[in-house]
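[audit] Reproducing an earlier prediction to check determinism. Same input, same settings, fresh worker. If the tokens differ from the archived copy the diff job will pick it up downstream; this log only records the rerun itself.
[audit] input (167 residues):
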Amino acid sequence: MTPAELLIDAFDRIHESATAVLDDLTDEQLVARPADEANTVAWLVWHLTRVQDLDLASTSGREQVWTSDGYDDRFGLPFGADDHGYGHSPEQVGQVRVGGELLGSYLDAVHQATTAWLSGLTAEDLDDVVDTSYDPPVTLGVRLVSVLDDDAQHVGQAAYVRGLVTR
């Protein structure tokens, strides 16, 4: 198995899990909160997809799917084009009100862009420094693991919230 195949498998698992979380949820369930300031399924899936889209766009040199495919306009959120939810207040979390079909479409488009780009990576590419603002500088391999870790945590949270709101 090549590093690219391993990474694609990991991102496939995130995509499959997030798709399963969205499956058959109503618009009301997508934005339901188990507590007043809790994250919603819609926000969690939007956030994990935005993190993946924005981070991989910046490391691959491509435009993010969010803007290139017009999802920023279709979602109609009051956030900037580079906003991915980090540090959002409970009020901002509540502003992510979107149907499952549109959210799933964005998730699919980002996954497709991710796997297409990953398929061309070599083992040597993983050692490329992509961010010098940290000490030590961040390599592509470390960045990809970071995105996977963040996505895995949030898809798990979304699955948990799904279980609470579908009871």
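[audit] rerun output stored. Observation attached for the diff report: Residues 3-165 form a domain with the Four Helix Bundle (Hemerythrin (Met), subunit A) fold (CATH 1.20.120.450).
[audit] end
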